[in-house]
Amino acid sequence: AVASEGGIDDAKRRGDAFARAFSAHLARLMEEPAAYGKLMEEPAAYGKLGLANLLELREECLREFQFHDAYRSIKQRENEASLAVLPDLLLELDHMDEGTRLLTLIEGVLAANIFDWGSRACVDLYHKGTIIEIYRMSRNKMQRPWRANDFDIFKERMLGSEGKKPKPHKRALLFVDNSGADVVLGMLPLARELLRRGTEVVLVANSLPALNDVTAMELPDIVAEAAKHCDILRRAAEAGGLLVDAMTNTLDGLKGNSSSVPLMVVENGCGSPCIDLRQVSSELAAAAKNADLVILEGMGRALHTNFNARFKCEALKLAMVKNQRLAEKLIKGNIYDCVCRYESAPAS
Fold first, then answer.
1. By C-alpha distance, which of 193, 213, 196 is closest to 204?
2. Three-state DSSP class for 121?
3. Of 335, 291, 337, 343, residue with least CA distance to 317
4. Nearest to 220 by CA among 236, 200, 198, 243
5. Model-level pTM?
6. pLDDT digits over 97-140, tens only?
7. Dihedral, 147, 142, 184, 52 alpha carbons, nearest 10
8. CB 151 within 8 A of CB 317
9. Residue 338 burial (CB count, 10 A)
10. What are phi and psi for residue 346, nearest 5 degrees?
11. Which residues contact 151 (CB under 8 A, 6 or more apart)?
């Protein structure tokens, strides 16, 4: 946090004050886990303080001491590095057949999800190689079967079988996670594939900064840069208003003369690496009304929260596990195991 503001004396003073305040919060919670009732989801949960609560407490505490985006410079650097290699990745994808491309896209999302400054194991990796070296290493390790391995079911839903082509989804909500390779080399190519198939895509991102998670305010600029190298993204971004007015709400009033399905950005009303879908922004609630596919990406949104959530539409949960305790407790696996869980829509 101090480094994000150049290490000036005022930042150091506020950093020391934050350290004392947050340490005091943690010390009290060690003694009395139910001390902060507002952090509890419901009365029955008293005494059960979850990781999501601690992450939210930390972000609130950082903001209290005027650290509004501690990872800003890191995010900008990783976005630039990832955008530089995006054209080569898109060219590689376009030379594949549909089945190979879909698997490569899902592998890419899982591989790119390794870029998480909330994981100690992943932070250690950053000191051993460049962002592209780490991404390629991660891609090379994407060996199936994954710990949760529903890709073949998802592939059949997307591509069909025995010559039968399924209808494309009408609107997909893509809950994105980290800046840099995660969103640029992982989720944007997947969004592009859905757009290619005629599906409206809504990128759902945090309203407030948390760790190195990308925010809704940052996404339009990233999309605009990516659109310079891809006609599919450019047309969709124009149809969704991203290349005109970044935050224009076009969900209920799309351009009638547009020849492309729209790519849109919506904020989720959250400022945490996790998300409680009972408490979201009105914009996200409106966007969700016509959605028939939800894609949750990342350890916080797809595993820590919502791994066992059931939706009224199809859902795909994608994440690389970067915490040993979570790996053992949730999926009975190991660190760097991958999760690809697909759930079809319940029968009406």
1. 213
2. helix
3. 343
4. 243
5. 0.85
6. 999 999 999 999 998 887 655 555 555 555 555 666 767 777 77
7. 30
8. no
9. 27
10. -65, 150
11. 103, 106, 144, 340, 342
